[in-house]
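Lab notebook, bench 4. Continuing the backlog of folding jobs that were queued last week. Each job is logged with the same field layout so the records can be merged later without manual cleanup. Today's entry covers NUDIX hydrolase, a 193-residue chain. Filled in by technician R.K.

JOB TYPE: sequence-to-structure
TARGET: NUDIX hydrolase
LENGTH: 193
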Amino acid sequence: MLDFDTKKFEEKTLSREKIFDGKIFQVVRDKVSLPDGNTGFRELVFHNGGVAVAPVIGDKMLLVGQYRKAIEQFIYEIPAGKLELGENSDTKAAALRELEEETGYSTKNLIEIAPFYVSPGCTSEITYLYFSSELEKVDNPRPQDDDEFLESIFVTLDEAKKLTREHKISDAKTIMAIQYWEIQQLKAGESNA
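JOB STATUS: finished
OUTPUT FIELD FOLLOWS
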């Protein structure tokens, strides 16, 4: 597929300055050697990653709404959260934890849609995206995070697409999940025809 040497595009780190070391991410400024021999600077965010689940019951997807301070807006998303330390080796377990904490549901059937980098130009954050259409209500679910305030809603595919057009759904993971769901519905329709 790739018939050229990608190594020639590599940027070698010459020095690193730590800017911020927080609970969720680190920020650094790297001085790098560029492929043409010049030097440049890269401001990078290192993040442990996250998980997300597109939960569907019948013909509806379960979304959670919350206020997102970074964009100063209330939006609807699929249940998701950051990987805790040590969870990188079992992202499915982390996805199940987040699903239960945020919705009170669990599943025995998680299908991996795709892991994806959120914004590889500046951050190492990767999100592991899953789908499930076999949800079960949990009798005594894990509690939500103390600083998390959520509203749950069930939406049809048409309602989800409308919320996306209205920018009430505006994050990449949820848009990807809705598109995956639509493809699954189209495939199911073709097999029933």
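OBSERVATION: The mean pLDDT is 92.
SIGNED: R.K.
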